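Input record (one chain):
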Amino acid sequence: MALIESNPFPTGTLAPDFKLLDTVSGKNLSLSSVKGEKGTVIMFICNHCPFVIHVNEELVRLTNDYLNKGVGFVAVSSNSVKTHPQDGPEFMTEHAKKMGYPFPYLYDETQEIAAAYDAACTPDFYIFDANLKSVYHGQLDSSRPGNEIPVTGGDMRKSLDNLLTGTSPLENQKPSIGCSIKWG
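The corresponding structure, as predicted from the sequence alone:
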């Protein structure tokens, strides 16, 4: 497992557009179709990464807590299936259903979307405002596999609360840490 931090993504950056296959519904979804009225969370995840597995249940809780507040959520898997076939679309469908993902789980076959977001690791989290301008890019919270810190989603929850109340974005945005995206 290659441990890596997320790359910088400046506050105010416009979300790159996309149209990708949702492995659960079988439909192609665009950024505008998953965008929330008040904000949008884009998560780069995959099936096998221990850092994603560690936070999966909180991703479901977090989404369920904020969906009804006007925040849209979407997850994208960009790993190469040549090197990691367990991250392919059929396994993504199975995994999303098993975990009860309340968000679309999109497959970035060409890896162009990961490159457009300069995503580096799984998990890698981005929050955008109603105008699709970046307000947060960083960790879910300080919990990591084996560090005994509870998974709370604290950093993301604080950022989402700030977004919803019109408060300034968090000044100290700590990078996410996880497995490197498997480029093909």
